[in-house]
């Protein structure tokens, strides 16, 4: 279209032809650069790797694989309090979700999910989004297991909220600590973590449960990252 305008005999005879030609050429270059930049930026934004909402079936303790709605995911339970992690729900409460509840836990606990088909690359613009509600002094931390077996827990957390809240975690902002998965207790800080191949992703508040007054609740979780073949 631009070439057609420039080749017009009427345009060539005009005194403004050189200026108009230059403007059109600059506009074309700018548009090309903008499209290239936009495509490059979009490619750096990973898509949804998995989401878990938990099945809408009766509450149970402990939560089991039966409660996982995503057929590609495997549930992992860890820590001395793992046998009392509850998949909770209250029918009389309008809008009450089906969620993971730490209230009954008699020891530290952790819940993870693993995709059977792929690892996930959590480098770059990867992120985690979840809906949760914490009571008392509980703060919900992200935990991950790398493909080499290393366990890590985030320094950053999702803290007290009187109502359900959606929380977004930018992975590049996280400071990591080693996690003793047997006791579910954080250890020393870790720098320069390679997140290109993550095996399991989950959450913990690094504390025992204290019934409704002191507990963590998680309704759903989304993981945005790039799949890596197992």
Write the CATH fold name of the largest domain: Jelly Rolls
Q: In the residues, how many domains can be counted?
A: 2
Distance between the termini: 49 Å
How many beta-strand segments?
15
Strand order in the sheet with the most strands: 2-5-13-8-9-11-12
Which term fits the overall shape? Answer: globular
Mean pLDDT: 88
Please state roughly what percent of the residues sit in beta strands, choosing from under 5%, 5-15%, 15-25%, 25-35%, 35-45% or over 45%.
35-45%
Profile the largest sheet: 7 strands, antiparallel
Going by CATH, the homologous superfamily of the largest domain would be: Galactose-binding lectin
What percent of residues adopt helix (DSSP H or I)? 10-25%
Structural class: alpha+beta
Tally of alpha and pi helices: 3
Report the C-alpha radius of gyration, rounded: 25 Å
Q: Which spans of ≥5 residues are poorly predicted at pLDDT below 50?
A: 27-41
What does this protein structure show overall?
The protein has helices at residues 2-7, 9-13, 17-43; strands spanning 48-52, 73-78, 86-88, 99-101, 110-115, 118-121, 127-134, 140-146, 151-158, 165-170, 176-180, 185-190, 198-204, 216-224, 226-229. With 230 residues, it is of the alpha+beta class. The strands form three sheets. A seven-stranded antiparallel beta sheet has the order 2-5-13-8-9-11-12, with no helix packed on it. Strands 1, 3, 4, 7, 10 and 14 form a six-stranded antiparallel beta sheet that branches. The chain has a two-stranded antiparallel ribbon with strand order 6-15. The radius of gyration is 25 Å and the shape is globular.
